[in-house]
Write a structure and sequence with these properties.
The complex is a heterodimer of chains A (about 290) and B (about 325). With about 290 residues, chain A is an all-alpha fold. Chain A has 16 helices and no strands. Chain B folds into two domains: about 55 residues; about 230 residues, Orthogonal Bundle (MetI-like fold). Chain B is built from 14 helices and two strands, in the order ααββαααααααααααα. The chains are: A mainly alpha (about 290), B mainly alpha (about 325). Chain A: One of its GO terms (cellular component) is plasma membrane.
């Protein structure tokens, strides 16, 4: 069945057997099984956008309509009215943006120290950095909540981002990338009397763009999607992020499926765009731990 | 820096001058290294290391109504955990974890193995399977709350058309946990597909070729060659999925709020309820549970590191 998957080299092409009835049947079965799996995976993605543009009475029918009906923007308007979604969008953007930029900076500096600078205890400190990854964030939220509200930073952007300004995962990934940087280039730059900071900024970082993009996208998506911390640290709707706004849509008095779907559709667009167009980079960031 | 040339002139051999120079540079390098590590270290110290200590402290103290630690209670918060209620919380956590990890990993494995047989459009199909990754916990949960809603449930509508019985997705104690599992599996499937697909991509071409020459095709090839070769990635995925499942919170908060009758209250949700819900602020009790969570996750990570370490030594 899978023999036909070959055929790029000429040798295989010659030895490729003629498709028999069994091959064809296997092929049909394969696509049938894939289709059977793909439908439930894609159905929620499909329905959130189709349902967003349905009229309330269409959404209330039973059995539910599954095909697109019209193009009613009432749900989007309703969702925008029920909670300040635009403001929440901005909050999410500011939060995820600050966290991403900060993690890129702190990770790049730390990774540089581990790869290009010699200092005593380098290996031990790297192990300590890695060990921070073992601590589940949920186990630190109570003291962090007390610390940040104690500083009077509850319900503020500072409070939202502070615990996440650095994370060892980015350091780990960038270290891997920096280690592959040609040593001769580094030596040549140093020989020319170039300082570490200038080398980092003008040569290393521009050449490490794929790794930086991978880390940046990963950090942006995970912080854009954060739920627990923004839920406990924000109090006013003015400071809440989009994800918390979605929950308010559900618990609010106007809980209505159309508004929920519209809110979910609006909230998912940025990350959906990133996943569709930046998958190459995301795969790199996600799978760094799994593949050598 | 002005002394540099003077020293060099005094020293006869250029070799020793360079070592001295190197030593000076090394000292500067070390200083710079500490400077570069400082920003990360400050964040880790304030929001990771200190909280661990404070969690231990809080877990051994009672607290007043607004959560300020009051008297020392020793290990009584831990002793209080020996109740049927907390036992149920742990049981729910285990069931939820199994209900998320087993179908999630198996599903991702089946998908990537089937994708291996696809000639044209493999990348496109893989991308399609990975799409749910874009959905946040909150958006996925909100969408599934519409699917599950008792009134005009989309899923029950589909079952009705297929002539099947209605399911009390979130309203029955037996079903609610599995409904939350279904949502979580859907959310995480894309990640599993990406990890395993990357693993398949890293299998040397010669291995597959050799197996094919020996006559292995289709399911046989998958079972005897691909799955064993995927060992490290499968293991990684199982551990990561387990850790993620143990930390799941948003889907429970949005879909069931721990109910009905506590049937979906996992460890993390229980921590949230004690510390932050209904203005309870029982930080002591919640901290004790947070330490249990920490311990469980730590063990999972240790297992992962241990096994991967051994794998590395093998190759």
């Amino acid at each position: 069945m899978t023999l036909t998957a070959e055929g790029k080299g000429t040798v295989e092409k010659v030895s490729r057997p003629r498709p028999t009835l069994g091959h064809v049947a296997g092929r049909v079965l394969l696509y049938l099984m894939l289709a059977l799996l793909l439908v439930p995976v894609l159905f929620p993605v499909y329905y959130v956008f189709v349902g967003t543009f349905m009229e309330p009475r269409e959404l209330a029918t039973f059995p539910s309509r599954l095909l697109p009906t019209g193009f009613d923007t009432g749900n989007i308007e309703g969702a925008l009215k029920a909670v300040p979604l635009a403001r929440m969008y901005w909050n999410s953007l500011v939060m995820a943006g600050i966290i991403t930029v900060s993690q890129l900076c702190t990770s790049a500096l730390a990774a540089y120290a581990f790869v290009f600078l010699r200092f005593r205890g380098s290996a031990v400190i790297f192990a300590l950095f890695l060990s921070t990854l073992m601590v589940p964030a949920e186990a630190t939220f109570i003291p962090n909540y007390l610390t940040i509200t104690g500083w009077g930073l509850g319900n503020s952007y500072a409070g939202l981002v502070m615990p996440f300004l650095a994370y060892a995962f980015g350091t780990f990934l960038l270290r891997q990338s920096f280690k592959q940087f040609p040593r001769e280039l580094y030596d040549a730059a140093r020989m020319d009397g170039m300082g570490h900071l200038r080398f980092l900024w003008t040569i290393l970082l521009p050449l490490s763009r794929p790794a930086l993009t991978a880390v940046g996208m990963y950090v942006f998506i995970t912080s854009w999607n954060m739920y627990f911390w923004p839920l406990i640290i924000t109090r006013s709707t003015e400071m809440q992020t989009l994800q918390i706004g979605l929950n308010s849509l559900k618990t609010g008095e106007a809980a209505n499926p159309g508004l929920l779907l519209a809110g979910a559709a609006l909230s998912v667009i940025p990350t959906l765009v990133l996943v569709i167009f930046g998958q190459r980079f995301i795969v790199r960031g996600l799978t760094a731990g799994a593949v050598k | 820096m002005t002394t540099g040339p003077v020293i060099e002139r005094r020293v006869a051999s250029p070799h020793s001058s360079s070592t001295r120079h190197k030593r000076a540079r090394r000292g500067k390098d070390a200083l710079l290294a500490w400077g570069f590590l400082l920003p990360s270290a400050v964040v880790f110290a304030l929001f990771l290391v200190y909280p661990l200590g404070r969690t231990v402290y809080l877990s051994m103290h009672g607290n007043d109504i607004i959560g300020r630690p009051s008297r020392f209670v020793g290990l009584s918060h831990f002793a209080e955990m020996a109740t049927p209620q907390f036992g149920q919380t742990l049981m729910t956590t285990v069931l939820f974890t199994v209900g998320v990890v087993v179908p999630g990993v198996a599903g991702a494995l089946v998908i990537v193995l089937l994708l291996e047989g696809v000639i044209k459009g493999q990348r496109f199909l893989r991308g399609a399977f990975a799409l749910p990754f874009a959905f946040s916990v909150a958006s996925a949960s909100v969408i599934f709350s519409v699917f599950y809603s008792p009134g005009n449930s989309v899923l029950n509508g589909i079952l009705y058309r297929l002539g099947m019985d209605q399911v009390p997705w979130l309203t029955s104690q037996e079903m609610a946990l599995w409904s939350v599992c279904i949502t979580t599996v859907w959310m995480n499937l894309g990640y599993g597909v990406l990890v395993l697909a990357a693993g398949i991509g890293s299998i040397p071409k010669e291995v597959n070729e050799a197996a094919r020459i020996d006559g292995a095709t289709g399911p046989r090839l998958a079972w005897d060659v691909t799955i064993p070769m995927l060992g490290p990635q499968l293991f990684f995925l199982i551990v990561i999925s387990t850790i993620n499942a143990l930390q799941s919170f948003g889907q429970i908060h949005i879909l069931t709020a721990g109910g009905p009758v506590g049937s979906t209250t996992t460890l993390v949700y229980s921590i949230f309820q004690d510390a932050f819900a209904y203005g309870t602020s029982d930080f002591g009790r919640a901290s004790a549970q947070a330490l249990v969570l920490l311990l469980v996750v730590l063990v999972c990570t240790m297992v992962q590191f241990g096994v991967i370490e051994r794998k590395v030594h093998y190759s």
